[in-house]
Structures are given as C-alpha cells and as structure tokens.
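user: can you give me the structure for this one chain? tokens are fine.
assistant: on it. calling the predictor now.
[tool input]
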Amino acid sequence: MNLTTILVNGAILLMCAIFIRHTLQRARYFLQMLQQHGYKTHEYRHWIGDHFVSKVITAEHILYNAVILLFITAVAGWITYISAVVVMVVFTLFWFGPVHRYKPEKDKKPLIFTPRAIRLAATLAVLTTPMYYFFGDFIFSAELFTRNQLVEEPVGNYLTADPYFLGFLLSVIDIAIPFLMFPAAWLMKPVETSIQNGFKRQARRKLASMPHLKIIAITGSYGKTSTKFVIHDFLKERLNVCVTPGSYNTPMGICKVINNDLEARHQVLVLEMGARYEGNIQELCNIAQPDISVITNVGIAHLDTFGSREAIAREKATLERSLTPGGTLVLNGEDDIVRQMGADRTDIKRIVTGEKYQQVWADETIVNTDGTNFTLHWKNSSSASTRVKTRLLGKHNIQNILQASAVAREFGIRIETVAVAASRMEPVEHRLELKKNGDLTIIDDAFNSNPVGAKNAVDILCSFESGRKIIITPGMVELGEREDEENRQFGEHIGRSAVDLAILVGKEQTTAIREGIEAIRDGEKPELQIALSLFEANEILNHFMQPGDVVLYENDLPDSYNE
C-alpha cells in the first residue's frame, strides 16, 4: 500500500471521526436539555419544536446534504474518487468540525451524570451503535473499515466507501440523535418508575419508624425556599432539624433527603413541596404527610402547565387537605386565595399572618439597603412583641419571617429567640443576595423570577443612594398566555424607575420587556442594551460599569432558553 492509499484511507477515517465527535457532542447536549426539562418528553418535544432550526436540523445539515445531491447529480462523473474524498472531507471538517453550538464556553446548568442520566445515555448508545454497524457494513461492502480488493485505482486499494453515501448516512445519524431521545426515554420509563417506587417505599418505611418526628411542609408559587430556610434557622436554635437543601422539592429530591440525611436524632423534618402539574403535591404528601403545613401564596408561576390560577390554587390547597388531624395550617393573610384555605376544617389549627388578623403580624417597618427592620407581634393565649433586624432585603421577606415565626411558636420557641435568629440569617443564595465585586455592588436575584418579586427587586435596586443602577434580566418564563403581558408590565415598572441601564438577555425573549420600557421611559433613561446570552451581558456590563454602581441580576434562564 503506497502513501496515497494510506492518505485517502486516513481521510475517510477522519471524515467518520469528525462526524462521530459531532454526534457525541449533540447527544450530550440533547441529554442535558432533556434533563433540564425534568426528563419529561412532552416538555422536551416543545423545546425541540422551538429550536428545530437552530439546534435540531441546522443549516449545516441542510447545506451538507444539498452539496452531496449536487455532486451526485452534476459533478461526480467529472472528478476522480480521490478528489471526491478530499471534497467531502473538507466540507465535513468545515461544517461539522466545530461543536461550539452544542458546547458553550460555560453552562449555567451543566449536565449532571446522575444514575438516571447514565442509564439514559447507555440506552441511547444501544439505539445508536447498531446504526453505525449496519451502515458501516452496508457502505464498506465487507467488514467495517476493512480494505476490499475489488476497488481498482491506479494508486492502490481503498476502503470501499462511496464518500457521498458515507457523508449522507453519517449526517442522518447525526440528525437522528435528538429524536432518539424519545424512544430511549420511553424504554427506560418502566425502569425509572420501578426505581422511584422503591425509593418512595424506603422513605415511607423510615418515616413510619420515627413516630416522634414532626413534618413541616411548605408550598407556594414563590417564596417557599426562602421560607423553608427561615423556618430552619428559627427551629435549629432549640431543635435537631433536617431540611431539604436548595430547591429539593420533587419526589426523588425529598426521598433522597429522607433516605440519606434523616437520622434518629432529628426531631423535625422541613420539606419544600413544589408542583408543575396537578397531582404533584399529593404525590409528595403520600410520601410524607405533614403535621404543619405552610402556604405562602398562589401566584401565576408555572401557568404554562397549570393553565389557570384556579388550578394552581387547587394544587396548593392539597397541602391543607393532606394535613394530619390536629395539625397546624399557617397561611399568608395577604393573599386573598390562601387565607380562605382550611376554613371548613374544624380538626386543625389555622394561623393567618398579617396585621389585619392580629395573630402574627409586623408593623413599624423600615426597608433599606442594610436590610429590614420591623416590630414582630404574636397574639394567642398570651401576647408578645419584639424588634427584629435582619439582613434580608425586601418587604416580601417580612412575610416569610412571619410565617416562619408562627411555626417556631408552635414548638415553644420564644419571640426573643426568633429575633436573635433573624439577626444572624444570611440571604438564600441567588435570592436577593447582596454581594461585593470590587467597587461594584451586586444584588443576585438570579434563581428565578415572578411578577411580584421582580418588581420588588427593582425597587430594592433603586433604593441604593449611590452609584448608577443597572439591571440584567431575561424576564420571566413559564407564565403561559400571560407571559408577554407580565413581562410588558415588568418593563413598564423598569421604565418608571430610576434604573440607568437595562441589559436584556435574549432579543426575542425580552421583546415584551423592551416594549414596556420604551412605552414609559423618559428620554434616554434607562439606556437599553440587548445581549444574546448572560455572558455577552456581562461583557456589556464590563464596558459600562463605574466604581460604586449597583447591578441587579434578575432571573437567570437555563441553557435551554439561550437564543
């Protein structure tokens, strides 16, 4: 075999390697997107539809196959086999060598190779590998990557691959990857269901073995994670408390904490219960029935999956209906829907927070850049009041503290102890968390965003007396048909505020916010900049910022929302 033969065979193998690398990176990327959508194939399907041209079947796929068709019909008869191989390798390298489309420099929420993700990846490999074997056997005439002596060329023997056909079939496999996620997920569904049921049984058995344990469950459209951590901070002053970390609010998240972290020494288990569909909270209560239920509010978060605020209210009320007889229900009296919950139950204790109801309330409130200062009042069999100072920002955190203090009172914790614990509390990560970056002040509210919280965050930004005010936001998502209207109102709020620069992340995503700002803003304030990603937004910020400026990061969409 001479040098030319070796080089041509190497070129064919290089062409295969380029495509396999590209396909593997696509497989990793689409597995990440499926994971970000909770492994729910119907949500993943909607995402596929929204990103069909930019991610699924791209311009590179279309142009590549158009070139193949052109060469087969008009050019193939005029060039040699070696020339055809060279041409196809060049086009393959040019269009499929780069993988940056599926491998960003930074992932805001990277793929986590959990056992479930590994099982799904293995299933995808099982579905994909036979395609390579079948096509390889087909296009190479004999065994895969084996020279065939039937090919006669003046310079020697080659792999018997038609370069056009090889490129076409490799591109077909590349295109198929996002669609193969569906059968992979469907095939694994019975396995995952069986595994999850096993974890649920284990969690229920463990809870049954701890009759002394008191279970506190918190739900609400927003504020539940912050309220959960405030409850934990109050109770840990006197009790051994086990609490779910972060936003662990799904069946498997709760089971993981119960099975792995809950110990016999614990007296209280604090659980956050989230929901995106009707029936989610009931599934959680079937694992851990609460002795104390806390409902923060009924908003319009996840309106895209619930369909209406009434459906959201029904779902949140599940926590009241599942409360054990003799249990305690803590309700936010500022929410018209929430304060009515449990009114027909005579076998539970209801506590409604808010000044109007004179059970647990706050007055003489001062909110500024140093935090929040107010007087906390309890009234029950006996009355008590104390001044509370906390580093937590915003009026909504007062409501969280009120509900948490109502829970603490049920465990016999004194109001003075609550005040001391409140003074020590640190903001929850990415929830109005105040940070310093050199001479720049940062308000990190990037975890998620809702209509009430987003406007409140802008007000907090504008309460800073020094420096220019900058907001970086992609707006709000998962609000269904109301998403555009809510984002437009958010934009109007920004336009009326003292914000100096608004950096909007995503040209299409932030159209409604931009319209709202432009409808209200006076002259050139606030200045508007559009970024295609969070990383580009930070580059704009670096060019604009000056010492003493204050920056609010309001919401941070996952990678699946990048434009």
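assistant: here you go. The radius of gyration is 29 Å. Residues 307 and 480 are 7 Å apart (CA to CA).
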